[in-house]
Every structure is written in structure tokens, then in C-alpha cells.
Specification:
By secondary structure, the chain is α+β, with helices and mostly antiparallel strands. The protein is 23% helix and 28% strand. The protein has 10 helices and 19 strands. The strands form 4 sheets. Strands 4-3-7-8-6-9-5-2-10-1-11 form an 11-stranded mixed β-sheet. A 4-stranded antiparallel β-sheet has the order 16-17-19-18. Strands 12-13 form a two-stranded antiparallel sheet.
Length: 351
């Protein structure tokens, strides 16, 4: 991938933000990337055979990213610039490799979102599309109801510090927004995308399973999830310190491992309560927003009363280090702190 600086803001990029970035004298190329969750109702392979078709009204949540075809070209390998630009201009879709394997669909296949049908032209490495499941043009994404710009990529002619870029852009933020800037090579994640460290949905599905469902019509921001998937993947078990919790069965080994180490290190008194693990919800109340890691049962909230969302975290740093060692990402480091939150990041280095 060509080196790029990644810029994103909480709540999505403000209107006109991309144009402001493009005015920088050091920005050779700028692209803003829109995205969100679209609900897949049917897919077919290149032979025309149906691969997925959940019974209505259920569907499969798919993370979609989108950009203007010509703008995105400078940020992909040279060998892919022409075929990707052509596909996007023709209204076709591009799948990342992980998504293609999950979908069992490649070039010549189709993905359908209600009345919208997208032909798949290419399968590319996950890094090329920010690990999105489906990449399309902004015009195509708008037909799926996805119009919010989520992040931007910058190709700078000379090196700028993150602080210098942030200082130049902060006057254009709306009240309460937080800006994040990552120069090439600064992110722990290999993917140039919004969020930075959170595991993308395609990889969450690969690790914890893919569910079907639909936005819950009775509870905004929640998902009416397929009960068969819940029965197969979500369990209630008794774990050290916390007692009975409901999580994805695949999460329990490292959760239990972390809690046993907490006990072994004499840190049990640092854990006072849990607000739960599995919760079938989106990140926000918008049905096109991202899927919460809680929906997979792959995140747990600990000491919630003392670590409310947006407040300065009070977790014991020794407790945090144990959970990080067991492959959890701590929400206290998020742009808006979520100190209670520990979510799956990677397999543990031990156990």
C-alpha cells in the first residue's frame, strides 16, 4: 500500500472536511471514505447459484466503505489502480479477501441489499479496502443509505507532525468532536481505516461467527438476532470473580485466563462489578452505524459505575495490563474514553 496519513473524527467527518484537507499545500492527494452497515438479503456466485438468502425479514450485516473512484486510486497499489477505478465507476463492488471467503462469492457474483443489486468485479487484499467487507463508489453507497464520511486518507508531499495537522484542522470540527491523526506506520493495525485498533467486522465474523438478524423495530439501536445463532454461539457460564456472565463461547478461554491471572496476582479487589458481555446492539442508535463488539459477545464491561462512557477512567492499571496481555483492547484508550470496556483484539500471547 502507498503510505498514507489517516484522519478521522468521532461522529463522522464534518461537512466540507474533505475540501478543507484538499486545500492544504502539502496534500498531493486526498480521499474521504464514507461507510456504515448495510443489510444483505441475498447473494449469488458467478454461476448464478444462491449462496446466502436469509429468511425475510432477516438479513446479514455487511460493513461497506465507499469513495469517489478517481480519488481513491492514488491510495492503492499501482497494479490495482486501473481495475479498481473502472469497477467503481461502473457501479460494481470490490470484496476484501476475508469477506470473499466468508461470502463464498468472487468476481461475477452478486450481493443484493433489498432492491439494490451489486455485481462483484474484484477481490483484493483486505489492506487495500481498509478491511471493509464491501467497497463501492459513493454513488452506489448512497443507494444503500450510506452517505456519512467516516475517515480520510492523505498523501502528503512533505512530512507533517500529527500535532501540526491536528492544529490546522481543529477549527473546522463541530463542538464536541475529537480528531485523530495517524502518520504512515504509526497505527498498531495494518488497516487504514476509522477506529484504528478495533477489530474490523470481517475479522470478527471469521473469529466469532456471522449472524443474521435485522434492526430491532421495537428498540432503536438494537438487533433482533437469529435465535439459532445465539443458541449456537452465546453461552452463560460461571467465571472467576465475576460469577455468571453471557458471552461468545470462543471468548471464554481468554476471559477466564485473564481473570485467573487477576486472582493469582492478588488483584481481585480491583474488580467490583460487571455490566455484562453479550448485547445485540449497534455502536449507536443508527441502524447503519457499526456493529458493537458486544453483539458478538466478544466484549465485557467491568467496573461500569466508576468508569462511565466519556469519563476519565479509574481502572487499576495492573488490571488493564492483565487483560491486554490476554488479548483484550481496553476502551480507556478510545478517542472518547470507555473505561469499563474490554473487547477482543487478538488471541492471547499465553494460555
Amino acid at each position: 500500500m502507498p503510505p498514507a496519513t489517516v484522519v478521522w473524527t468521532t461522529g463522522g467527518l464534518p461537512d466540507g472536511f474533505g475540501e478543507r484537507l484538499a486545500q492544504s499545500p502539502d496534500a498531493d492527494h486526498v480521499v474521504t471514505v464514507a461507510g456504515g452497515t448495510a443489510w444483505l438479503t441475498r447473494s449469488t456466485n458467478a454461476a448464478g447459484a444462491v449462496v446466502d438468502q436469509p429468511p425475510a425479514p432477516d438479513a446479514i450485516p455487511i460493513e461497506v466503505f465507499a469513495a469517489k473512484p478517481g480519488d481513491y486510486g492514488p491510495f492503492v497499489p499501482a497494479s490495482l489502480k486501473k481495475p479498481m477505478t473502472k469497477a467503481l465507476k461502473q457501479g460494481q463492488g470490490i470484496l476484501g479477501q476475508t469477506s470473499s471467503a466468508l461470502r463464498r462469492v468472487g468476481p461475477g457474483g452478486t450481493l443484493e441489499f433489498g432492491n439494490e443489486k451489486i455485481d462483484i468485479a474484484l477481490v483484493v487484499p483486505d489492506e487495500v479496502v481498509g478491511a471493509a467487507e464491501l467497497f463501492v463508489s459513493k454513488q452506489t453507497a448512497a443507494r444503500l443509505g450510506l452517505t456519512e464520511d467516516r475517515y480520510a486518507l492523505l498523501d502528503l508531499s512533505r512530512s507533517e507532525t500529527d500535532q501540526a495537522i491536528s492544529t490546522a484542522l481543529e477549527p473546522f470540527l463541530t463542538v464536541g468532536q475529537i480528531l485523530r491523526v495517524f502518520a504512515p506506520g504509526e497505527k498498531a493495525s495494518p488497516y487504514e481505516r476509522v477506529g484504528g485498533t478495533t477489530v474490523p467486522p470481517a475479522l470478527m465474523k471469521q473469529r466469532f461467527g456471522e449472524f443474521t438478524g435485522r434492526p430491532d423495530p421495537t428498540k432503536q439501536g438494537w438487533i433482533a438476532m437469529d435465535p439459532e445463532w445465539v443458541s449456537a454461539h452465546i453461552q452463560t457460564r460461571t467465571v472467576p470473580i465475576l460469577g455468571r456472565v453471557t458471552c461468545n463461547s470462543e471468548l471464554f478461554p481468554q476471559l477466564i485466563g485473564a481473570l485467573r491471572e487477576v486472582q493469582a496476582k492478588g488483584l481481585e479487589s480491583t474488580v467490583h462489578s460487571t455490566a455484562g458481555c453479550y448485547a445485540a446492539r449497534m455502536v449507536t442508535s443508527n441502524p447503519t452505524s457499526g456493529i458493537s463488539q458486544h453483539a458478538w459477545g466478544a466484549a465485557i464491561d467491568i467496573n461500569a459505575p466508576e468508569n462511565s462512557f466519556g469519563a476519565t477512567p479509574t481502572q487499576d492499571p495492573h488490571l488493564v495490563k492483565v487483560f491486554e496481555r490476554w488479548g483484550f483492547l481496553w476502551g480507556g484508550t478510545f478517542a472518547i474514553p470507555d473505561g469499563m470496556h474490554f473487547e477482543y483484539l487478538k488471541p492471547p500471547a499465553k494460555g
